[in-house]
Please model this.
Amino acid sequence: MRTPDALHDLRTPDRTARSSGRDLTQLDHYLGALDVHLTPQQFARLSEVSAVPLGVPHEAITGSLSGIQGGDTSRVIAPAAPVS
Model:
């Protein structure tokens, strides 16, 4: 069984993955996640269902960006991670 934490760590390159566990079994689970390969569709679905609501003011800003940018958001590059 692979742990969700290990899978998440592999897909977030801006963070350092954990490489330890409480015991060898847990470490084996973490290392076993290296063999998991997700399709882009699977990764997109997991990202969608596990997204955490950003709350105020982030959601309000996101909802108004299209109007602020004149309806064309194709030339705007969003940051990889929200800045707090």
Notes: Helices lie at 4-10, 24-32, 40-49, 58-68.
